[in-house]
Amino acid sequence: MAAEELAERLGRRLGMREGETEQQRRHEAEQGPGSAPAPGALPPGSPAGRAGGAEGSPGGGRRLFSPAAEFREFSRRQLRDMERLFRQYDAGRDGFIDLMELKLMMEKLGAPQTHIGLKNMIKEVDEDLDSKLSFREFLLIFRKAAAGELQEDSGLHALARLSEIDVSTEGVKGAKSFFEAKAQAMTEASRFEEEIRAEQEEKKKQAEELKQRKAAFKELQSAFAQ
């Protein structure tokens, strides 16, 4: 009698497990393939996915960002100075300047801001609404400064002014508006190529000087050996 009762209980338990397994299979079939993200996968448009010279797009995709191509009103030297300044205050090394890093930056520049003031600074150029500054959004500050679009008492105006990066005379050559500066930049499309050639010529000159010094040193060695 006890054996029959035990067998009946085991049968009911086995039936329940088979029912759960069948229910799970149906659920997976309804969900379809690719419904769950792979382990360790980054969600579309995440900050980590935008690092490394790429910006998130509204559709969650990626598009490459070229400062020299998009910000043609600035010279290569100016862009290098802006990048150096950005990296200096990107303490987290994640490719963004967040509110606390911006707070430290403004304090170092001698123009401390209130919490609301810092949030307003970011909001003015925060195109992707992630409450922090990407390098592209950082460059927008200097574009607005060069175009005269920043209020003189604003935090962004103080940042652009105190950063010691001159964007009013060299970048847009004193143009009164951004549109004039853009037209002026288009007529100087070969400027970047000329700067690259100048850098290459300088490297070539340095290499030639080094070669001459080595040759002179060898001659001096030969003279002592005789």
What's the β-strand tally? 4
Rg calc: 31 Å
What's the rounded overall pLDDT mean? 74
Strand order of the largest sheet: 1-2
Q: Given the helix and strand composition, which structural class is it?
A: mainly alpha
Q: In this structure, how is the largest beta sheet organized? A: 2 strands, antiparallel
User: What share of the residues does DSSP label as strand, in percent?
Assistant: under 5%
Large-scale geometry: extended
How many helices does DSSP assign? Answer: 10
* Low-pLDDT ranges: 33-53, 56-61, 169-179
Question: What this model shows, in words?
Answer:
The protein has 226 residues and is mainly α. It is 61% helix and 4% strand. The protein has helices spanning 2-31, 47-50, 67-70, 76-89, 99-108, 115-125, 135-146, 155-162, 178-186, 191-225; strands at residues 54-56, 62-64, 96-97, 133-134. The strands form two sheets. A two-stranded antiparallel ribbon has the order 1-2. The longest helix has 35 residues, at 191-225.
